[in-house]
Structures are given as structure tokens and as C-alpha cells.
Write a structure and sequence with these properties.
Blueprint: E1 17-24, E2 27-33, H1 45-59, E3 68-73, E4 79-85, H2 89-104, H3 126-141
The structure holds zinc ion.
Length: about 150
């Protein structure tokens, strides 16, 4: 079998940030890398799960919701994939910053965290999610929309 494109990125050189991972037709896949790969520090499952619920809720309620195709955690627990359609890099970055700010400041019950709405609703860690979102927000706010590339 062929090695898929995301495995061809050199993960030993990957820093925290946001990168255009691939383009499939009019769909862009954004690599939102919250942790340096293989450095011993990863999102816990409860943290990643909570971020997933909050990120998806925010993105699908934002001004850019028509351009949001999918939001989900990486299995390696070092970040998230955001799939967009019809958004410029500046808009995708603005959406991501908005969602990380929302997650960092979130208070109250996690949306969708109930037995009827989720497959593992007890596996949530809001304090960790808020902490990790705040840490990543600072990284995202320092990014320029024309530098969201692996080779930038
Ligand atoms: Zn869930």
C-alpha cells in the first residue's frame, strides 16, 4: 500500500502551529498541531475529547460555519484536523483562533456530553482542555495567514 500524504511530513521537525496539510478539490485539511510530536507530552484522552466537543460546537456555530466540513482529534493526541471548504487561510486561522479562545474561556456543561449524545460521555476533562486551549491560543495568535505551510 502507498504511504499516505500525512505520513510523509517529517514529524521530527514539526513544531506547534497550524499547517495546510492537504487540498482535495475544494476541501482544505488543516493540521492544528498542539504538541511537538514524540516529545513525551500529549493531550490526555479526556482533554482531547472535551476539546473535540467544544471545537466542533464553536466552529459549527461561527460566522464561518458554512465552510466547516469536519473537526476531529488526531489519534496520536498531538493535535486536531480541521477540514474547511471555501475559506481563505486568513479565515481558517481566524476561525481557529476564535474557537481556541472559546475553549480557553469555556464555563459550564460540555455540549454533547451526555449518554444519548456521545459514545463515552464520562471521558471529559474540562480543566485540562481549557489549559491546553489557552496554551495553544498564544501560538495561534502569533501566526500569520501566509505562513500556514509545513515549509514556511
Ligand atoms: Zn463525545
Amino acid at each position: 500500500m502507498e504511504r499516505i500524504a500525512s505520513f510523509c511530513v517529517d514529524h521530527t521537525k514539526l513544531k506547534r502551529g497550524m499547517y495546510l496539510s492537504r487540498r482535495d478539490g475544494d476541501v482544505d485539511t488543516w493540521d492544528i498541531r498542539m504538541k511537538e510530536p514524540n516529545h513525551g507530552d500529549y493531550l490526555s484522552t479526556g482533554c482531547a475529547h472535551t476539546l473535540e466537543h467544544l471545537f466542533a460546537t464553536c466552529a459549527r456555530n461561527s460566522a464561518y460555519k458554512e465552510g466547516v466540513v469536519y473537526v476531529g482529534p488526531m489519534g496520536c493526541r498531538t493535535g486536531f484536523y480541521l477540514l474547511t471548504r471555501g475559506l481563505t487561510p486568513a479565515e481558517a486561522l481566524r476561525l481557529t483562533v476564535e474557537c481556541y479562545r472559546f475553549m480557553a474561556n469555556f464555563e459550564g456543561p460540555v455540549p454533547g456530553a451526555s449518554e444519548t449524545e456521545c459514545g463515552n460521555y464520562r471521558d471529559m476533562d474540562l480543566p485540562a482542555a481549557k489549559r491546553e486551549a489557552a496554551a495553544m491560543l498564544a501560538v495561534l495568535e502569533a501566526l500569520s495567514p501566509d505562513a500556514l505551510r509545513y515549509d514556511a
